[in-house]
């Protein structure tokens, strides 16, 4: 074997070893994060869970936790990031515009938020206690609101492009709707004697969100039936735009 070939083989071996070690660390981090989330769910409001208990739940030594994370603050941030990522995937699935009417998409997305806040109060509380990265200046929930606003803005922009409509009328809509939904549900969840049940508050918020979207759409010269399949509406409006071109 030539020196060049030998070095190439050694390089591949080292690269493979690094990849396996990185995967090993990733698996350990996931175990730790999952353990922390499980213990949060079981803990009383405001309780801080000792790192040792998290390590034990994950089946690891406490020293392993500190090798995977740069201290308690980093661990807490990563737990919040894990929660936000998991919840974002849930919301992305509900925002799938390929199936359902605008009304159905709004209801199922807002219901997912209401379900998470109601069924996981301890996780919701913890997500508000700090950022998803050490040194970040907004808490995890605020960051999630920005992320979902950006996602909604991307969807609206893509639809506007397909139907050849200026999307500037919708600039403020995503954040306004996301903020309204989150703020209203936070107040509702915190009310010890709410006057509306979960289905009613979801329906109310979906209706209000539609009013905002409909107003922006009409100002852009577009009228949409909120009960019609959105993919069919987009196809129809896109065809009309092609005829105008």
TrEMBL record:
Ranges for region Disordered: 1-23
MF (Gene Ontology): DNA-binding transcription factor activity; transcription cis-regulatory region binding
Descriptive protein name: DNA-binding transcriptional regulator, AcrR family
PANTHER family: HTH-TYPE TRANSCRIPTIONAL REGULATOR BETI, HTH-TYPE TRANSCRIPTIONAL REGULATOR RUTR
Domain HTH tetR-type stretches: 26-87
UniProt superkingdom: Bacteria
UniProt keyword list: DNA-binding, Transcription, Transcription regulation
Species assigned in the record: Rhodococcus maanshanensis
Regions recorded as binding DNA: 50-69
